[in-house]
Amino acid sequence: MAEDILKDCGNECGCTMEIGTVINDNDCVFECELTGDRSSVEGTFGRYVEEAKKVCESAVVTSEDSESDGILTKKVRIEFSCTAENIIFQLRAKSL
After folding, report:
1. Which end of the chain, N or C, is less packed with Cβ atoms under 10 Å?
2. pLDDT in tens, 15-58
3. How far apart are CA 41 and CA 78, in angstroms?
4. Interval 70-84: pLDDT, tens
5. Rounded to an integer, what distance in angstroms lies between the CA atom of residue 79 and that of residue 37?
């Protein structure tokens, strides 16, 4: 049984792990909170939306804002059609 589970796993780095333990095939949602002054948060949010739509035109973007003492907190949720799109977006978002 254990051999069946591990037969498709890589072991080039000296360790063995089933890819399903690293990447969940149902992980299609990206969520984060952006906090700061309104123009900074809105600018970052705009870049996230633009990049998400480049990855997946049908990505569903929702957000919820709250503001306290001039600090905006935006809860962002982006739903992609598959896990690969979510991973691609997250890798690209690191440079935004």
Report:
1. N
2. 655 555 567 778 899 999 999 999 999 999 999 999 999 999 99
3. 16
4. 999 999 999 999 999
5. 25
Measure Cα distances from 25 to 16, 37, 65, 75 in Å.
Answer: 19, 36, 30, 24
Q: What is the 3-state secondary structure (H, E, C) of 10-79?
A: CCCCCCCCCHHHCCCCCCCEEEEEEEECHHHHHHHHHHHHHHHHHHCCCCEEEEEEEEECCEEEEEEEEE
Secondary structure of residue 85 in the 3-state scheme: helix
Quote the radius of gyration of the chain (alpha carbons, Å).
18
Q: Report in angstroms the alpha-carbon separations of 74 from 5, 21, 38, 68, 77.
A: 41, 30, 9, 12, 10
**CA-based torsion, 35, 47, 52, 24: positive or negative:** negative
